[in-house]
Amino acid sequence: MINGVIAVHKEPGMTSHDVVAKLRKIFKTKQIGHTGTLDPEVSGVLPICIGQATRISEYIMEMPKQYEGQMVLGISTTTEDFTGEPIEVRKVEKDALTPKKIESVSQSFIGEIEQIPPMYSSVKVQGKRLYELAREGKVIDRKPRQVTIYDLKLKSLELEIEYPTVDFQVTCSKGTYIRTLCVDLGKKLGYPAHMSKLIRTSSGSFTIDNAYTLQEIEELVDNNQIGEVITPMAEALPYLEKMELTNEDIHNKIYNGQKISLANPSKKAGLIKIVDSNNRLVALYETSINSLFIKPKKVFKPVEE
Fold first, then answer.
1. Number of domains composing the chain
2. Annotated catalytic, 209?
3. Which end of the chain is more exposed for a tag (fewer CB within 10 A), N or C?
């Protein structure tokens, strides 16, 4: 049984659920889940959890994501991206925008910001997805959400055309809508805008360079080489503090759900990953500030060799 994470290079035209459905057939198991959706027309890295790793997907989702995209100024759309119908079209005046001005405005978005989820999104309101309401022609009030933009770099600018384009790279927290970021950027520059391209280049420690297409994964499975590209559960959570225990302590304490004592009071609250001598994830334990004990959050069953 495989217990780990694989980075899938999702191709345009597929939903994240499509990817999971195909992988369930390839791996012949239902115990597969993704770590946050990508819009159908967006390509890029989609970490997929297999086996017991499905129980750590929520922690993988907490890690920052990086995208490369393009914004078009002068045109807004119903979906805030290139898939929608134009709403407002306004020619950008010559010399109205300069690289310095765009750079200054883009930097003002770094840090914690509020976003209003787009109507064409999977956010649920009163049990219904927003995109379902949007397709019915309804527009409802949405509560703003707080997200974090860690970094926003301008890659290239094309300002001499009728509808200027801005290519960028952004690192952000989970739940960030890049198309909404483009719209808000445009508003601050004084023009309608939409997102015309997007690819996710990394999600946590998983990058586009170590991602595999569904076809490549199927070939690896057929050739019994899939184990070579699966990331072990402990390595999939590199940001968590690690504690290695002996097999005796693991069997007598961890598998019995006992607390673990610390030599010194904990200086911070959070999760600690418990591993065995082979760096296999055994459990996730919680700690609190000034505590001399850590207590179990999730314990993973022993894997038969």
1. 3
2. no
3. C
What pLDDT does 127 receive?
A: 67
Share the mean pLDDT of the chain.
91
What secondary structure, in 3-state letters, does the chain show?
A: CCCEEEEEEECCCCCHHHHHHHHHHHHCCCCEEECCCCCCCCEEEEEEEEHHHHHHHHHHHCCCEEEEEEEEECEEECCCECCCCEEEECCCCCCCCCHHHHHHHHHCCCEEEEECCCCCCCCEECCEEHHHHHHCCCCCCCCCEEEEEEEEEEEEEECCCCCCEEEEEEEECCCCCHHHHHHHHHHHHCCCEEEEEEEEEEECCEEHHHCECHHHHHHHHHCCCHHHCCEECCCCCCCCEEEECCHHHHHHCHHHCCCEECCCCCCCCEEEEEECCCCCEEEEEEECCCCCEEEEEEECCCCCC
- The pLDDT assigned to 132 comes to 66
CATH number at residue 173: 3.30.2350.10
Indicate if 122 and 34 belong to the same structural domain. Answer: no
Tell me the pLDDT tens digit for each residue of 197-226. Answer: 999 999 999 999 999 999 999 999 999 999
CATH of the domain at 253: 2.30.130.10
Q: At what angle do helices 178-189 and 99-107 cross, to 10 degrees?
A: 120
Q: pTM value? A: 0.90
- Catalytic entry in 18, 39, 249, 276: 39
Instruction: Answer yes or no: is pLDDT of 305 > 60.
Output: no
Instruction: List, for residues 132-170, the tens digit of each pLDDT value.
Output: 655 766 676 778 899 999 999 999 999 999 999 999 999
For the beta carbon of residue 154, count every other beta carbon within 10 angstroms.
15
Q: What is the pLDDT of residue 131?
A: 66
Residues 47 and 160 in one domain: no
